[in-house]
Amino acid sequence: MLTRRQILFQGAAAGVAPLLRPVSLAHAADRDTLRFRALWQGTSIGEHQVAFRREGDRLTVETQIDITARFFFFNLFRLQHAAREVWLADRLASVTSTTNRDGVRMEVSGEAIEGGFRIVGGDGPFLAAADLLTSNSLWNSRIVRETRLIDVQHGGEVGLVARPLGNEQIVTQQGRIDARRYQLITPYYAGSVFYDADERWVKALVELKGETLEYVPAP
């Protein structure tokens, strides 16, 4: 069952102008691995990695996040997340994940069933729509056109608001490029995501506990 916060948020969710063309999972995952360093106040505090493995129309996506910001001997915030998603023909077939957010441990699992996607988290089972992306799907530019996501950290389904912020020049390992920037807001995270001309995820700004983390490509 959705929480009151999730229901209210879904009621406010609105579509985004389709500035990016539809993207298949195969195109979005045309690299073997995406690796980003998380920078806080210019200092590297961890990494966000997404690994892809293709077998015919089966795509396995493994996400690893390990971020810790410390002030002297105190942890200001900590996020550890490991998830394994299996996609078949552009639809989510199964997911398992574990998350440690500031010492609170969460586990989520789910699988496609007739009539939808059954996901189980801390609040119990929930039947989500069968064609949704997950909250880990920043690697797929289709996310900017979605209004709901399967939440693979907490379980259930969450609303999403996305809006275009225009084009910006950003620095990558290949030099300066032109990227489209989108603002994303969910009940649990917000920020901006950037996609290049080929609709590949190239940068992000993530708001966490009032602080902004910058995701930059890792070598």
Explain how this protein is built.
The protein is mainly beta and 219 residues long. 6% of the residues lie in helices and 60% in strands. It contains two helices and 15 strands. The strands form two sheets. Strands 8-7-6-5-4-3-2-1-15-14-13-12-11 form a 13-stranded antiparallel beta sheet, with no helix packed on it. A two-stranded antiparallel sheet has the order 9-10. Strand 3 (58-71) and strand 4 form a beta hairpin. The chain is globular and about 45 Å long.
Which SSEs are present, and which pair or pack?
Elements: H1 4-12, H2 25-28, E1 33-40, E2 43-55, E3 58-71, E4 74-88, E5 91-101, E6 104-113, E7 116-121, E8 124-128, E9 148-150, E10 157-159, E11 161-172, E12 175-185, E13 190-195, E14 201-208, E15 211-217
Antiparallel strand pairs: 1-2, 1-15, 2-3, 3-4, 4-5, 5-6, 6-7, 7-8, 9-10, 11-12, 12-13, 13-14, 14-15
Beta-strand portion reads over 45%
Largest sheet: 13 strands, antiparallel
Poorly predicted runs: 1-18
**Level of helix content?**
under 10%
Mean pLDDT score, rounded? 87
Radius of gyration: 17 Å
Please provide the count of β strands: 15
Principal-axes geometry comes out as globular
In total, how many domains does the architecture comprise? 1
| CA(first)-CA(last) distance | 41 Å
Structural class: mainly beta
How many helices? The count is 2
Q: How do the helices and strands follow one another from N- to C-terminus?
A: HHEEEEEEEEEEEEEEE
Strand order of the largest sheet: 8-7-6-5-4-3-2-1-15-14-13-12-11
